[in-house]
Amino acid sequence: MFKTGLNVASKRGFSSSAIRANAVYGTPKSGPYSNLPFKVKDRKFIPFGLVWWGVPGFFFLFPFMSSYWQLKKSGSLDPVPEE
């Protein structure tokens, strides 16, 4: 009893064939960088390296830039006049 139930449950029941699914989705691209969800080569506007290093660089420098701005606005960075 358990043997037949396990045998039925272990079978894979696809409703369509791989050939039919291929007609809907097409064949996947092949070659380097084809499996990535973003474009690495031949970018038109911003080079990939600039985005790759610019985003973490901006988020690293943001607290320093904002604290400098706030200190400059408050006058804490102005030199103290000599008397």
Automatic annotation (TrEMBL):
<dbReference type="GO" id="GO:0005743">
    <property type="term" value="C:mitochondrial inner membrane"/>
</dbReference>
<keyword id="KW-0472">Membrane</keyword>
<comment type="function">
    <text>Component of the cytochrome c oxidase, the last enzyme in the mitochondrial electron transport chain which drives oxidative phosphorylation. The respiratory chain contains 3 multisubunit complexes succinate dehydrogenase (complex II, CII), ubiquinol-cytochrome c oxidoreductase (cytochrome b-c1 complex, complex III, CIII) and cytochrome c oxidase (complex IV, CIV), that cooperate to transfer electrons derived from NADH and succinate to molecular oxygen, creating an electrochemical gradient over the inner membrane that drives transmembrane transport and the ATP synthase.</text>
</comment>
<comment type="subunit">
    <text>Component of the cytochrome c oxidase (complex IV, CIV), a multisubunit enzyme composed of a catalytic core of 3 subunits and several supernumerary subunits. The complex exists as a monomer or a dimer and forms supercomplexes (SCs) in the inner mitochondrial membrane with ubiquinol-cytochrome c oxidoreductase (cytochrome b-c1 complex, complex III, CIII).</text>
</comment>
<comment type="similarity">
    <text>Belongs to the cytochrome c oxidase VIIc family.</text>
</comment>
<keyword id="KW-0812">Transmembrane</keyword>
<keyword id="KW-1133">Transmembrane helix</keyword>
<comment type="pathway">
    <text>Energy metabolism; oxidative phosphorylation.</text>
</comment>
<dbReference type="GO" id="GO:0006123">
    <property type="term" value="P:mitochondrial electron transport, cytochrome c to oxygen"/>
</dbReference>
<dbReference type="GO" id="GO:0045277">
    <property type="term" value="C:respiratory chain complex IV"/>
</dbReference>
<keyword id="KW-0496">Mitochondrion</keyword>
<protein>
    <recommendedName>
        <fullName>Cytochrome c oxidase subunit 8, mitochondrial</fullName>
    </recommendedName>
</protein>
<feature type="transmembrane region" description="Helical">
    <location>
        <begin position="45"/>
        <end position="64"/>
    </location>
</feature>
<dbReference type="InterPro" id="IPR004202">
    <property type="entry name" value="COX7C/Cox8"/>
</dbReference>
<dbReference type="InterPro" id="IPR036636">
    <property type="entry name" value="COX7C/Cox8_sf"/>
</dbReference>
<keyword id="KW-0809">Transit peptide</keyword>
<keyword id="KW-0999">Mitochondrion inner membrane</keyword>
<dbReference type="Pfam" id="PF02935">
    <property type="entry name" value="COX7C"/>
</dbReference>
